[in-house]
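Example 137, ligand zinc ion.
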Amino acid sequence: MTSELVPPPDMDADAVAWWDATRERRLLVQRCGSCGDHQHYPRPFCVACGARDLALVAASGRGTVYSFTVVHRAPSAEFAPPYTIALVRLEEGPLMLTRIVDGPVPLECDRPVELRWQGLEDGRHLPVFALADAGSR
Ligand code: ZN
């Protein structure tokens, strides 16, 4: 786990329960009760079929790097460059915008990654990812 604190992101009404779970380091995704698709971030309707029958379910915390970029000029002083921003394809299907920690620069697409947590100032945690251990693939 990364111990440095970063400023907490904004939170809208659909995301309150999702963020609350991060206090216990639980990563959730929405699952549609109508079509079975998973989605992230939390929304009031299913982007695949439009149904409003959505539930938050636990994600495995495993995924692969879909795309990434290395940030060399941070947007504010709280972020120390260089760091890697990535779209991770979660095992359940959705893409998650996140950071890759403890990884090589440059990274490679399709690399297996696994969940880590970064503490926020208010007790929530930010899901970040690190390269998966070679033995766990
Ligand atoms: Zn659906």
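Summary: The chain has a mean pLDDT of 89.
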